[in-house]
Amino acid sequence: MLTKQEWTADRRAGFAALLGRQRPGWSLEQPFYLDPTIYALERELWFPRQWIVMAHVSELPRRGDRIVRDLFGEEIIIVNAGTDGFHAFYNVCTHRGSRICRDETRTPNLVCPYHAWGFRLTGELLSGRDLPEGADKAELGLHRIGVREAGGLIFCGLDEESLPDLAPALDTLLPALRHHGFHNARIAERRSYPTSANWKLVLENFFECYHCRPSHPEYFRMNGHVAATAVSDEVAAAEWEGGVSAWREQAVAPALDRVVRHAGDIDEVKYSLYRQPIGLGRDTQSHDGKPIAPLMGDFTHYDGGETAMHLGRLSFAGCYNDHAVIFQFMPRGVEETNVVATWLVDADADPGTLDIGSLTFMWDVTTKQDKRIIEDNAAGVRSRAYRPGPYTALESQSASFVASYLEIMGRLVG
Amino acid sequence: MLTKQEWTADRRAGFAALLGRQRPGWSLEQPFYLDPTIYALERELWFPRQWIVMAHVSELPRRGDRIVRDLFGEEIIIVNAGTDGFHAFYNVCTHRGSRICRDETRTPNLVCPYHAWGFRLTGELLSGRDLPEGADKAELGLHRIGVREAGGLIFCGLDEESLPDLAPALDTLLPALRHHGFHNARIAERRSYPTSANWKLVLENFFECYHCRPSHPEYFRMNGHVAATAVSDEVAAAEWEGGVSAWREQAVAPALDRVVRHAGDIDEVKYSLYRQPIGLGRDTQSHDGKPIAPLMGDFTHYDGGETAMHLGRLSFAGCYNDHAVIFQFMPRGVEETNVVATWLVDADADPGTLDIGSLTFMWDVTTKQDKRIIEDNAAGVRSRAYRPGPYTALESQSASFVASYLEIMGRLVG
Amino acid sequence: MLTKQEWTADRRAGFAALLGRQRPGWSLEQPFYLDPTIYALERELWFPRQWIVMAHVSELPRRGDRIVRDLFGEEIIIVNAGTDGFHAFYNVCTHRGSRICRDETRTPNLVCPYHAWGFRLTGELLSGRDLPEGADKAELGLHRIGVREAGGLIFCGLDEESLPDLAPALDTLLPALRHHGFHNARIAERRSYPTSANWKLVLENFFECYHCRPSHPEYFRMNGHVAATAVSDEVAAAEWEGGVSAWREQAVAPALDRVVRHAGDIDEVKYSLYRQPIGLGRDTQSHDGKPIAPLMGDFTHYDGGETAMHLGRLSFAGCYNDHAVIFQFMPRGVEETNVVATWLVDADADPGTLDIGSLTFMWDVTTKQDKRIIEDNAAGVRSRAYRPGPYTALESQSASFVASYLEIMGRLVG
C-alpha cells in the first residue's frame, strides 16, 4: 500500500528526475502510462484538485433526491438538499465505514443500512444515542466532497480544501451554458466507453485531430474543421479560417463570441470556449446534419455552429443549436479510463419523436473508434520497445496538455 | 514476494507504530483491512497458530479415507490412519513439490501421481529406490499439519510447533460437544458464503448484534436475545436476563450450565461456552421453531435452548436440541473470506424426511444478509475517506476482538 | 514497476545469495517459480538472449506477407521483405507508440492505423512530412528484433546485440533439418497448451521421462526408449542401448548419425541432436505406428527413427520419417507458459486424406497430460511447505537445465 510517507526522499527524487528528463514536444516515457505508483501519486495529489462535471440538475430535481457515482475511484453520493443546495459526500458511514447506499432514490435523510445511523441531507449525524464516551457527535458527520451547481451542471471535486476557485472559469463558461440552455435541458441518452488505457493517453487522443483522417472516416467526412486540423495543408487551413471569420461576423451571440483558452496553473481551473461552424452545410451534429430537436436556450434559428468548452481538465462539452454532448473522462485505474458521453436536449423535446440513433451517431461512432485506437496505443506503450515520439504540429494541444501535466506534477511533488 | 527478512527494521518499526496508534474502542485503520503486506504477516505469524475445526469424523470414517481442504490458503490432506489416528499433511510431494491428490477417496497409501512416490498414511516415504546419494529417506516424509480429534470434530492448525495446547479449551468444550451428541452426528448440509472482505471485518460483524435490527429482520423476529443485544434498552435487557436466569434454573444440564468466555492469550486457544433460551416459544432453530430432527446426544426433551461455542478464534458452533451448526471463517486473501456453515443432525436422522429448507432457513438467510452488509462495509473501508469509528456498547465483543488482535500482533512482531 | 536501477545493491546481493545457496541436484527454491521480481529479471536479462523458433517459412511465403506473434510477452511482427529477406519488429509505432497491426495479411508497407505513419518492410520510416524540427527521420525506423531463417524455420530473439551466434548450432542442426525436409514442409496442425506454471517447471518436466510411467500411459506403451528412461532398470536399459546401436549401424544417414548435446554457455546457443528408433515395431509416431504421410526430405524408406533436436533453449523438434513436431515453450508470465506444438508434413501431403487425429495423437495426449501434472506441480510449489527435493538419476537432464540456469543467471547479474 502506497502511503504518503513512502513518497519521501528517494522516490520523490527519482520521480522528480523522471519529470525533469522528459523531452519537450515528445510523448511521455512509459512509467507515466503504466506505473501504479505514479497513478497512486496522481490519485493522491492531482485528481483531488480537479473539478469535473458529475451530473445534470435534471437527475436530482427534488429535495431528497440522491444519486451515487464514481469519482476517481471513490463512490460518492450527491444529494439535493432543497433550499440548502446540493451536497456531496463519500459513500462511507462514519460509524464502521459501511457504504451507505447503492440505490438512487428520494429519501428524507441518509440512513446507513448496517446499523441504521442516520444523517441529515446536509451531512450531520442525526442521532447519537448509542455513542460511547469520547466520541463527539459533531465530528461524526459525513465526509464532504466539493460540489457546485452552475448553469444546470453539477461540478464535483474530492478535496474541498485544495480545489481551485471555479469563479474565473464560470465568468466565461456560465453565459455560454445559459445561452445554450443547459439549465433547461434534460438527458436524452448517456453511454459509457470503458477504455483500457491510462487517462493521459485518452486525453492526448482527444486533444488532436491528426488521427481523424485515418481513424475517423465519418467524422472526417462530416466536419468542416478537419481540413485545418487533420492534415498539414496551409492552403486548406487558410481557407477554413477565412470561412470561420466570415461566419462569425454574422452569427455569433455575444456570450459565445469569444475565443478563450485558459490552460490553468496549479491553482486554477482549466477552461476554454471556442465557437466555429460545423461546416459542409450542416445545421447540427445529427446524422444527416438536419435539425433533430427543439432549439435550445437563446437560439432563435439554426446557425450551424458548434461551441466547444473545456469544463476543467476532465470534462468537455460540444454544443449545437438543438443539443449538447458532455464528455467525462473518468480515470478508474492506471490503465483503465471510463469515457462517458451524455446527450442533452431541451426539456420540452418530445421523447416520442426524438431520433436517438441520429442524435448520438457522430460521437458514438467516433468514441468507439477512439476506444479502439487508444487501446492499440496502450498495447504498444506496454512494450519494452516503446520510446517517446515527437508530436507533430497538428498535435500541439496534446503536447501542451503533457507539458502542463509535467509542470503541475513537478510542483505538487516538489 | 514478502519474505521474513523484509519485515525487519523499518517495516517492523512502521507496523509497530501503526499498531500502537490504534484508538481503543474504535475500529481499525484502513491498512489492517486492505494492505497485502499486513495480510502476509498474518499469514506468516497469526493464522498458523490458530486451531480451527476442519471436518467432522463422519467425513472420513474408515482407515484410508482422505479429504482435501483449504486451510489459510494452503491445500491440506486429512487422512484416517485407523489405529494410528487422524493425520494431516500439506498436499505437497517432497520430491518435486507436486500436489499429491485432488480427489477425496479411500486409499491404502498416499501416492503422488507425478512420479509415483508413495507415502504411508502416517506420512513416511515408502520407497526410496531411486533416491540419489545425499538424500535421506527419513527426511522426505510428508510435511505435517497439526491435527486433533475431539468429540467428533477434527481440529487442524498449520504449525505444529507454535500451536497452543487444546486441552484447556477441551476441558470446557468436550463435555458440551458430547452432551450435544457431536460424536454421533452426520452432516445434513454444508454451504459456503464467499465474502469479499478482510477476515477481521467478517468477524467484527459476527461478534455483534447491534446490526440485527436493521439488517436481519428474520433473525430479529425469531430470537429472544435480540431484545438485549440489538437495541440499547436497559429495561428490555433486564427483562431478558431475568428470563434467562429463570430458564436456566430448571433446564440446563451440568455440562452446559456454565458461562465461560476465555479470550485467550497469544499461547492459548480462545474458547467460550454460553447457553440461553431461543425464546419466543421456539423449541429449536428451525423455520417454524418446531422440532425438525431426532433429539441429539443426551437430550431427553426439548428445552428450547441454544448453546453457543467459540472453538478457537475462527470456528464456532450454535447447538440446539436436535441439530447444530458449525461456522468456519476461512481467510482466503486480504479481501476474501470464505464463511462455511455445516448443519449436523443425529446420525440416525432419516434423510428421507429431513426438511433441509427449514433446517437451514435461519442461518442461511442471515449469513447471506451478512455477506451483503460485510461487502458493503468493505466497499466503504476502501475509500480514502474511511476513518476508524467508535464501537457502541452493543459492539463490545467486536471491540474486544480487535483489542486482542492488536495485543497479540504486537507481541508476534515485537 | 521494476527498473534496472532497483536491481542494484541490496536486491542484487540478495539474489546472488539466493542463487548461491541452491543445492546442486535438487530442485529450486520457491521464489524461482513464483517471485515476479525474478521473472522480471529473467525478462530483462535472460529471455532477450534466447533464439526461439517462431514460425515456418510456409506461413509467410510471399513478399509483403506478415504475421503477428507474441515473443516473451512482446507483440512482434515478422515480415517477408522478398529479396531483402525476413525482418521482424516490435509491433510499436515510433510516433506515439501505437500497435501497428493486428491482422496477418499481405501489404506493400507497414502503415500504422492511428496517424498513418508508413514504414518500409525493412523498417525505415517512409514519410516524414509532418515531423517537427529536432526529430530525425532516420531515428524513427521501427524497433528491430533479431531474425534468422534456417532450413525453413524462422528463429527470432529480442535483443539483436546480445543474441549469441546461431552459426555453431546450425552447423549441426541445418543438415539434419534439410535431411528431414523442413524447408519443403507445410503446417498440418498447430495447437496451444496454455499451462499455468513457471516456464522452468514446464521445462523440467519436458526434460525427464521418470514421470512417463505414472503420468503418460499411452507414451509409455508406444515408445521403446522408456524402458531405459522411465524406470531404473539396468538390464532393460542395457538391452535398449544395445538395440539402438544395432539399429544405428544399418540405418542412419550421415547428417543424422551424430549424438550432439551442447548445453551452451551464456554466449552460446544450446543445441542437441540425437537419433534413436521409436521401437516396438512402429514406423512413425502416428496413432497406430504406421505411415501417415509422404516421406519427407531425403528419406527413401521408413527406418522407424526419431530425431530429437534442441533448437535453442526454448524450442525443440521431434522428427520422424513422414512428419515432424516443433515445440515452443513461450513464457507469458511468472506462472503462465504457453506450450505450442506444430505438426509439419511434406508440402505435397494431400490435405484431403491426411488423418490429423492420428498425426497429432501421441503428442496431443501427452502434452495435455503434461499440462495437468505441471499445473499440479505448480500448485504444490505455491505452498509454504514446499522445499526443494532431490532429482533422481532419471531426471538428470532436468538437473542439468537447472544447474545451467543458475550458472548463467549468476553471471548475468554478477
Automatic annotation (TrEMBL), chains A, B, C:
The keyword Metal-binding applies. Residues 52-156 form the Rieske domain. Pfam families: Rieske (PF00355), Ring_hydroxyl_A (PF00848). GO terms for molecular function: 2 iron, 2 sulfur cluster binding; dioxygenase activity; iron ion binding. Keywords: 2Fe-2S, Dioxygenase, Iron, Iron-sulfur, Metal-binding, Oxidoreductase. Its cofactor is Fe cation. InterPro entries: Rieske_2Fe-2S, Rieske_2Fe-2S_sf, Ring_hydroxy_dOase_asu_C_dom, Rng_hydr_dOase-A. SUPFAM superfamilies: Bet v1-like, ISP domain. The keyword Protease does not apply. PROSITE patterns: RIESKE (PS51296). This is Aromatic ring-hydroxylating dioxygenase subunit alpha. It comes from Sphingomonas tagetis.
